[in-house]
# Entry
Amino acid sequence: MSGSTRRFEVKPLSRVEGEGALRVRIDGERVEIAEFNIYEPPRFFERILLGREVHEVPDITARICGICPVAYQMSSCHALEKALGVEVTPGIRTLRRLLYCGEWIQSHALHIHLLHAPDFLGYDSGFTMAAEYPELVENGLRLKAIGNRLLELLGGRAVHPINVTVGGFYKAPSAAAIRGMLPDLEWGLATSLELAETVAHFEFPRFSQRYECVALRHADEYPMNEGLIVAEGGPAGPLEIPVEDYDRHFAERHVPQSTALHSVRLPGETAYLTGPISRLNLCREQLPPRSAEVLDRLGLEWPLANAFESIIARAVEMAAAFEIASTIAADAATEISPSRVPYEPRAGEGCHATEAPRGLLYHRYRLGEDGLVAAAEIVPPTSQNQARIEADLLGLLPEVLALDDAAATQRCEALIRSYDPCISCATHFLTLSVERSGRS
# Structure
């Protein structure tokens, strides 16, 4: 290919939250341009929140994403509770963790079974895969349904829950209703543990990157709602900070090829990784026992450095969510009362981060003297992973260039899907056109 020019142009992505494109230009063997862009239409959520009463914020932020609304609600509730000086009871904290388990379960089940597994099994969708792998798809749908039922039980409904509020819940489910979930949760745990071993035997592309991993880390439990922000890998070295120091170490940047922001780690402006691979790399010692056991049996090399192996990380995390939820359900003996802690509107400022299925989600709010929202900042996982996705595509290109156009398209799609970048997408969501000149 010496002396030739080859261009990959990926048209706007279909069925996504926003618009995206991939553009690659190679001169001979040298990659000149490798850009991955998500063109996210202005939705103005941070502006919509201004002037709102505190109790409105969780309901509004839930509408940011139909797949992970709980993450937005939990980050906003924690941040606003800090601004208001509210401390929830242990019972409310436990219910929040159970609610978050439901979101992880339904999100990971959907992505693993219907969006990502077909890439490794040679199908264009989860539906065509179902003909040969009916049990895999049926299990995925049942796992997701159990997650949805947890969201309905605690949140009032599976999509954009309405029972979550600052200070707790409008109404707590009964202990009997929570215990009633136990048979399904135990089935889900056993099925997820088997799934982790199944996907670990998929054939993965040979691909390795040096990831700068960022996640919450809690001293005693696998992180969801709480923890310090920690980082390892990359030129900036290790980091362990309270969430309140987030803005000192991370920033969003405009890039010329995209209307979407790219998050970087300071001071070196480096791309970093959030999500399942980062959480396992940084927090696997906090996994509950049965999930930790299956992870040990998989014999993975640490740290994980292949984005395609995120399907393994998600399966292990789904098992962990079922294990945590099963423990909570088995221990549900008394009613949670009160279901929310009262508060008085006041001026204040607070920030918080939780672990959405796709990675770290940061919120900061400032309340004015009237108790209304005066400023809001929201940094979603997809924004934080965009620069890292682009870097991964750049690292993948040398292998892709040796493939034909169809295989190159599929490999790029699979890499992007590995991040599950908050997109409700069809399996074929990239359209690739290639322009070649002077090819020898």
Summary: The radius of gyration is 22 Å. Residues 12-18, 423-440 have pLDDT under 50 and may be disordered. The CA atoms of residues 55 and 124 lie 43 Å apart.
